[in-house]
Each structure stands twice: as structure tokens, then as C-alpha cells.
Amino acid sequence: MSDSELKPSVALIIPVYNEEEVLPQLIRELEVFRATRSETIRIYLVNDGSTDSTFVLARELTTSFQGYVLIDFSRNFGHQLAVSAGLEICEEDAAIIMDADLQDPLAVAGEMIDKWQEGSDIVHGVRRSRQGVSFMERITARLYYRVFRALTGVEAPMDAGDFRLLARPVINAFGKFKEQQPYVRGLISWLGFNQASVEFDRPARAAGETKYPWKRRLDLAFDGLISFSGRPLRWAMRLGLLISAGSIAGLCWVLLTKYIFQTAITGWASLIFVAFFFGGVQLFFLGLVGSYLARVYDEVKDRPRYVIRTIHHSEGASSGSKAVPRGFDTQTREGS
Ligand code: UDP
Ligand code: MG
Question: Does 306 sit in the ligand 1 pocket, CB within 6 Å?
């Protein structure tokens, strides 16, 4: 058995979407990091349908190095599915999910590896502070994690993004989730295992712009909630009951004022606002029910979750440039 087979191996799963600006610095820092570690580190760059030169550049920059696997999606499938694909394909003893923009510092990845070596199965990266994030974003994110916890009962760590290490048994367990819109951080917390965390100060993006504008952030937050909790549906029912009970009381009052006290209030125009208000409430909850239904529809269709155009191994990688792990069909590999 060669020396490299005895050393523990770690995969770094890095989704990249239009990251050409940050790639040169990323690869440079990755090489420095690898040189300082005793473990065998392999890097999985998942190109999530970039429309700039990210993939070509990634190939050029990594061609002279060993141990880079470039996974090229056929189009943009989203960050959460890019992470899922990386986890599904990697074969190392542990994997670390991280951003391409160096917001998840490699020094912290090193601490995660150390914690794993000490016996933790999952090591969360918890943000002590965040740079380059507005006050409003910080507040809403903090609030969201608390609401998520209260609503779902899943013991997800507060203020952690997707930056975390998973040991092989966790990666295997995660591979059993076949959800169309996986909420990766929630699913990992749901798994249990022996969890630890490392705190760090999150720097601003090294280069380029965020690929998570407000709308996508909101979508992710909403996905997270409804994929983990059916409680909003129960709230809708309770609110409906409350309003019905209230309206019966209101009807009694109207009848009393008209026939007993003879003081019925005129000006039924105010009624129209009440009608609009409840119309709004009804549409809101209809939409909510629809959101759950849409998820059921998505799951029932059972479409491939992502499609891989090609998997490329950097030159000199031990498995060779044509090798595709675990029986993957490079043309139409689906996240089954
Ligand atoms: N990303 C991706 N697909 C997307 C959006 C983002 O693969 O559709 C990648 C992106 O390249 C980055 C990571 O996901 O490596 C996190 O995105 P970003 O850093 O823009 O999010 P933020 O840190 O601002 O929340
Ligand atoms: Mg980022």
C-alpha cells in the first residue's frame, strides 16, 4: 500500500458560478493550503452552468496540478444541487463544503479537519462576525435561523451557512436524500451524528459579486422552512378557525345592535375593506398550500436533479482524466 493510501483524504467541494474573477486567487490559496497539510486533499470544483469563462479558466489553472476534479453541469441548477453533486461524486474520507470566493477561510477548513481527526463527524463553521453584509441582512439572517429552529425542531446551529466538514458516514447518509430542492444545511443537521463547530470571522468576498441576490436568498429561506415543517399549514387552519369564531361573535353583535338596541351602525362601505382584507388572507394561505403542493408535484415527477455534461480530472490525478467515479455516465449523469 502506498503512503498516500494510508493518509486520510479530504475532499473540498467548491461550487463555482461565474467566478472567473476569484479563481486565480482561489487556486493559489488552495495550493498553499494543500502544501501545509499532511492529509491527501482533492478539490472538486462544480461548475454550476457559468456563463463566463469559469470552466475554461478552471481547466487552465489546474492543468499542471494533481487532484482537481472539475464537474461541469449542463446548466445552472443552483448552489444546493452543486453541493449535493460534489458530495455524491467525491470518494474521500471526509468532505468540506465551501464557497469559491474565499469567504470560508482555508485556515478554518484546517481547523475542521483537526476536529474531525479528534473524532467529530460533522464540523460546522459558525460565523462570529460577517464582513461585507448589510445590517439588515445580518438581522434577518439571525432571525431566520431562530425561526427555523423554533418551527422545525431541527437543531441546526445558529448563524452557520453551508461551510462545514462531513465525515464519510455522514456523506453516505446524505447521499440517501433525493430531494429535488435540498436544503443542505438543514438536512445535514437533521442527520444527527456527532456534531462540533468552529467559530470564525467571515471576511467579505475576495473578488466578484454575490451570486445570491435577495430573491434567491428569500427562495432558499422559504424552501428551508417548508421542506422541514408542515406547521404553516396548521397555522392557516387555526387562523381560519379563529376568524370564523370571531365572525360569529360579530354577527351576534350586529343582530343585537339592529333589533335590540336599535343602534345599527350605517356606513357599510367599511365592509369592503374587511372583504379585501380577508380576500388577501385567503389568497396568502392558498398560495402557501400551493407551495407545498408544488413541492409534492416536483417530487412526484422524479426528474433528474441535475445533469452533468462532463467530469474532468486535472492532469496527473491518480485516477486519470477519463475515470469517472462510481459508475458515472458523464453524458447524462443524473442526481438520481
Ligand atoms: N453558486 C453556485 N450556483 C448558484 C449561485 C452560487 O454554484 O446558482 C456558488 C458561488 O459561486 C459561490 C457559492 O455558491 O461559490 C456561494 O455563493 P455566493 O458566495 O455568491 O453567496 P454569498 O456568500 O454571497 O451568500
Ligand atoms: Mg460567498
Answer: no
